[in-house]
Design brief:
With 101 residues, the protein is mostly helical. It has four helices and no strands. It has one domain. α1 runs antiparallel to α4. The protein starts with a helix and ends in a 10-residue tail after the last helix.
């Protein structure tokens, strides 16, 4: 479970950095401005993509996604460890315990 938590922290950091980098690349290449022009042609300029997607919103979304992934990976790591220990008891093998030494 500890190893799953550490792996989840690493994945969470990678998630946040990756999403922010993707946003910065998309913004610097001008794709958001092109999307604004495209959406303005349909909505008479009332809907702008640049208002919906900003750096603070990308950071909030990536942090929320990272926290959810952190919880899910930690819980799944504990469940998989429990299933492994049950399988070891039935078939024999190396039992990994949940004790702290």
């Amino acid at each position: 479970m500890k190893l799953a938590f550490l792996a989840a922290i690493a994945i969470a950091v990678i998630t946040v950095v990756t999403l922010v980098m993707i946003y910065l690349v998309v913004r610097s290449t001008g794709l958001i401005a092109q999307a604004d022009e495209f959406s303005a042609s349909f909505s008479d300029g009332s809907i702008l993509i640049s208002q919906l997607v900003s750096l603070s919103q990308v950071l909030a979304f990536s942090a929320t996604l990272a926290i959810l992934n952190l919880l899910a990976i930690t819980v799944l790591g504990a469940v998989i460890a429990g299933i492994y220990n049950l399988a070891v008891k039935v078939t024999g093998g190396l039992l990994v315990g949940f004790t702290s030494n």
